[in-house]
Specification:
- With about 160 residues, this protein is an all-alpha fold.
- It has one domain (about 5-155): Fumarate Reductase Cytochrome B subunit, CATH 1.20.950.
- It contains 5 helices and no strands.
- The chain has helices at about 5-30, 35-65, 75-105, 110-115, 125-155.
- The protein is elongated and about 55 Å long.
């Protein structure tokens, strides 16, 4: 499938939202005091990233995967690229589902909305929490790997789309 101009906007919007959600999630779990405002920012960024990712995956499934931006020269590169891209598309959905799962299982959605939530202790023993944290770590690692691979290809290989 040819890369549509809106696909680039969708890609970078999701990337920015994911980075913001990862950073705010890290801050929430590593700060001394609890910040309801920061948790709300984290939830908004995560929900937006998950929603846009859902749209992107639906487009991907109906229109096909976009053509690679860079020329991949080996079967290993092609396989690694496919695995990383599939995982990068699925991790925000897993994070969205596990985040919603924690809210539902904790029964704290109303306290979050009315501003009476006083901490994260209600979420600490819930099964989706470990999955959420593991998926966030994997997403952060794959995002870094993806960025490094893009830089490598940008410096070494001709571009397939746009200017060479």
């Amino acid at each position: 499938m040819q890369r549509h101009p809106l696909a680039r906007i969708l890609h970078w919007s999701i990337a920015g939202l994911v980075l913001g959600a990862l950073a705010s999630g890290y801050a929430i779990t590593h700060e001394e005091g609890f910040s309801l405002a920061l948790l709300r920012v984290h939830l908004a960024l995560g929900a937006a990233a998950g929603g846009l990712t859902l749209i992107r995956v639906m487009l991907w499934m109906t229109k096909g995967a976009p053509e690679s931006v860079f020329v991949l020269t080996s079967r290993i590169e092609v396989a690694a690229s496919r695995i990383v891209h599939i995982t990068l598309r699925l991790m925000p959905l897993l994070l969205l589902a596990s985040g919603i799962g924690m809210l539902v299982l904790s029964g704290k959605a109303e306290a979050l909305l009315d501003g009476t939530l006083s901490g994260l202790s209600a979420f600490e023993t819930l099964p989706p929490r470990k999955l959420h944290h593991a998926a966030a770590f994997l997403l952060a690692a794959l995002t870094l790997l993806h960025a490094l691979a893009a830089i490598k290809h940008r410096l070494q290989a001709p571009r397939r789309l746009g200017k060479a």
